[in-house]
């Protein structure tokens, strides 16, 4: 009996020590600095045994969504470096990580682009598809009457990137082809790129893209310093227009 009590005195503290070790607050990121991936930089990491997890960038704090202990935070890129502070809290315990989102090149002054874009659409009789001239920092969604959506990352009045999504089904119709070609030509021309070259290269690569289920991206298209990156899914393609 004495041996049993002695054994319990040794085992029980060890058991609780193991429990406290398992419940230790933990926060980590995959890198210390992140670069643009499309319109955003994706900060990835792990968090365990927290009660509250947030990130702060440019004075704004938001909650972090976690799935299975892993998180991915999308930060719209800017023309300046950005510091991102990730904070995990559990009672009186706090863990903090500071990472940097590297600056990217702006495509154009946003107001200049929006004014030229609206003027062009007016000349084509598309007065209902005008871009807003003033934008807060962030990614704005521009939905056109034809149902297509274009996304603009605007930071400090600078147009940092443009993205859109089209389905293979739309591209098989004459109307869909015309809408996409017109929009891409307008955007490319306003950014100083060769829209005809971009469309030609795009047509070559997407000819059989919907039949190749294993392919997830196309070769990057570059024209006069403007980059077009295309990601593929089984039904749609996503295009990201940026400068490196």
UniProtKB/TrEMBL annotation:
Entry superkingdom: Bacteria
Kindly give the InterPro entries that the UniProt entry links to this protein: Ig-like_fold
* Name of the protein in its database record: Lipoprotein
The record lists the organism as: Companilactobacillus kimchii DSM 13961 = JCM 10707
């Amino acid at each position: 009996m004495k041996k049993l009590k002695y054994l319990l005195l040794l085992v029980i503290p060890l058991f609780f020590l193991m429990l406290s070790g398992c419940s230790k607050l933990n926060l980590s990121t995959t890198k210390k600095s992140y670069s643009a991936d499309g319109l955003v930089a994706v900060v990835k990491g792990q968090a365990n045994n927290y009660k509250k997890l947030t990130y702060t960038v440019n004075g704004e704090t938001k909650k972090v969504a976690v799935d299975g202990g892993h998180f991915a935070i999308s930060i719209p890129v800017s023309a300046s470096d950005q510091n991102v502070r990730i904070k995990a809290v559990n009672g009186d315990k706090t863990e903090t990580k500071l990472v940097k989102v590297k600056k990217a090149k702006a495509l154009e002054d946003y107001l200049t682009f929006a004014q030229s874009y609206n003027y062009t659409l007016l000349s084509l009789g598309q007065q209902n598809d005008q871009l807003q001239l003033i934008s807060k920092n962030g990614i704005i969604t521009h939905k056109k009457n034809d149902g297509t959506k274009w996304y603009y990352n605007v930071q400090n009045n600078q147009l940092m990137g443009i993205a859109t999504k089209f389905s293979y089904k739309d591209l098989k119709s004459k109307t869909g082809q015309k809408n996409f070609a017109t929009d891409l030509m307008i955007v490319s021309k306003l950014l100083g790129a060769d829209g005809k070259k971009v469309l030609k290269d795009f047509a070559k690569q997407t000819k059989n893209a919907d039949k190749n289920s294993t392919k997830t991206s196309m070769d990057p298209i570059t024209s006069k310093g403007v980059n077009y990156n295309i990601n593929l899914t089984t039904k749609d393609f996503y295009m990201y227009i940026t400068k490196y």
